[in-house]
Amino acid sequence: MGRTDENEEPHAGSPESEEMLPLYDESTPFTASEELKAPDPKATPDEVRDYLVQAMQRRGVGIDHARRIAACWTIGNGQELRAYPVQMYRDIFGAGDAWVVYKAVKGQIYREENEKDPNYRLGMLCFSLALLALAAGGAAIGVFVASVVLETIGWVVALFGGIFGVVAFFASFEDRNPDKKAESELKAGWVMTPASGGNS
């Protein structure tokens, strides 16, 4: 009476059904000391899944849960991982995991971009000062040159040089913290769905 038929399908949530989840073994073993890099745009789905397992482990997620998260990524390559917006991450990984996955992936990508261009802030500041100097020169031409044509050109240069110079100046002080940037994107793109008994 208490015996279960061997051919009976395990019900959802049972230990047997947990064992049937599409887990896999990483192609390369995880070493905590090695530097983790975001997948190349041409990375295969398997390589993306390997990366996701390692990225989740580095955030303190257990290996089994990390593999379940990675198993949600089925056919996309590295470019899709880099390009997908917040809502796509939520559709793929579910509301419960998508926030952490997106922040880990995008934060890593932005961190690598910052490393490739460490002098971004200095470059933007110099560029803004050059534009403002150009604007000042244009204004001087507009004020001191008698020619109507040169005066017009000078004021146009002053106007556009001033606008773009100010924009570039403020851009040079942009907060380039990769985790904060990823979190801001999450807050802006997280579409809340009506509660239906699950996560939202």
UniProtKB/TrEMBL annotation:
It comes from the Eukaryota. Keywords: Membrane, Transmembrane, Transmembrane helix. Residues 1-44 are annotated as: Disordered. Residues 34-44 have a biased composition (Basic and acidic residues). The chain crosses the membrane at residues 122-146, 152-173. This is Uncharacterized protein.
